[in-house]
Design brief:
This protein is an alpha+beta fold and 329 residues long. The protein contains nine helices and twelve strands. A hairpin with a 2-residue loop joins strand 2 and strand 3. Helix 1 packs antiparallel against helix 2. The termini are far apart. The chain binds coenzyme A.
Length: 329
């Protein structure tokens, strides 16, 4: 008896939708090769995370609104990939894992794969496609700009460990008394909407990854506390206010059980000089009482005074990613 195993009939070369049953190992190997100069151990870990993303896609209906991207096959093997990921926001998608094998570059393969993915988004009435690219990856940025992606801004990821953090004075030299005038207090449960409005005003929502924070991000209350407790999450926020009681800044520490602390510092642009430093000083004082774990903060790359403060507090920049956006019209 002859047993014939059915294998998919791919075209000999060119773009085609990824087949999760057959392609994932080859795509992972391609990503490791294509990003090898750029990946640190954590980056390599994220390549494996994209494996889990493919796996999730198979299980979860929410992830299946659009197929997860295209590959390019040549000489019987995969030499190009562009992954498409859905977000929780309908119509908003993410492109990731844009990679072409070094031996096949500058032949228009990445462009053709991007075009295939964008055509798919358009056909399914998607509205927005976002991507992140290392700020110094000029070649990739050139490719995306030539395809009508626009730069929104860049965010730097800073890291430290609680054991390494240095206190920073809450007031600048020559600014004595600022701390006493500026009261920092815990966010009240009734201020969650004002906190969200302040957050959206102080940072372009497209600079939060993978999507803007939800409108109830700062909401507290019994149900929220219970849900956070069950998931092992914690979140604390402190605010500054002006003389009319309007919020001028908000500083947040979030953590998942056993995971790194993530800081978030949002300040009205016109109040930056006055409140950014005391709020960061407050976060650092608060962290000093916490278990010694990694601390991360993602902050706009062009906020030079904050960059200096983060250096002074002994954070180190890990990488800066430019956020780009494509609007389907
Ligand atoms: C970036 C990358 C995907 C481009 O793939 P590619 O198939 O070579 O790209 P294309 O041939 O389709 O080029 C499209 C455009 O990108 C730009 N570009 C790509 N590579 C370039 C290079 N080495 N120098 C200058 N411009 C370049 C050009 O504008 C080019 O258009 P042109 O050829 O008409 O001038 C590929 O170099 C790669 O895999 N790099 C490593 C992984 C990576 O950085 N991915 C991006 C992550 S966000």
């Amino acid at each position: 008896m002859v047993i014939t195993q059915l294998t998919p009939q791919w075209p000999p070369s060119g773009p085609r939708p990824i087949n999760l049953k057959y392609d994932v190992p080859q795509v992972t190997a391609l990503l490791e090769l294509a990003f090898s100069e750029k990946l640190d151990p954590e980056g390599r870990e994220s390549v494996h995370t994209s494996n889990s993303a493919f796996f999730l896609w198979q299980l979860d209906r929410d992830y299946r609104r659009l197929p997860p991207g295209y590959v390019w096959q040549e000489d019987g093997r995969i030499i190009g990939n562009v992954t498409l990921i859905n977000t929780k926001t309908p119509g908003r998608h993410i492109i990731a894992n844009v990679a072409v094998h070094p031996d096949y570059r500058r032949r228009g393969i990445a462009r053709a794969l991007m075009e295939a993915v964008l055509a798919q988004v358009r056909a399914r009435h998607g509205q927005t496609v976002m991507l992140q690219v290392l700020k110094d990856n000029i070649n990739a940025i050139r490719l995306y700009e030539s395809m009508q992606f626009t730069q929104i801004g860049a965010m730097t990821e800073w890291r430290s460990n609680i054991s390494r953090l240095r206190d920073i004075p809450p007031a600048s030299f020559g600014d004595v008394g600022t701390e006493t005038r500026l009261e920092i207090r815990p966010l009240l449960a009734s201020q969650w909407q004002a906190a969200f409005a302040l957050d959206s005003r102080s940072l372009n929502p497209d600079l939060t990854w993978p999507e803007p924070i939800p409108a109830d991000f700062y909401r507290q209350g019994l149900l929220r506390s219970l849900r956070n407790f069950l998931r092992g999450w914690s979140q604390e926020s402190w605010v500054t206010q002006d003389s009319d009681g309007q919020l001028t800044g908000i500083a947040t520490i979030s953590a998942e059980w056993g995971g790194p602390y993530t800081l978030r510092l949002r300040v009205l642009p016109e109040q930056r000089d006055k409140v950014a430093r005391p709020l960061l000083a407050k976060l650092i004082r608060r962290l000093k009482n916490q278990p010694r774990r990694t601390v991360a903060i993602y902050h706009p790359d062009d906020d030079e005074p904050m960059n200096q403060l983060l250096h002074a507090a002994n954070f180190s920049p890990r990488r800066t990613l430019t956020h780009m956006r494509y609007d389907v019209t």
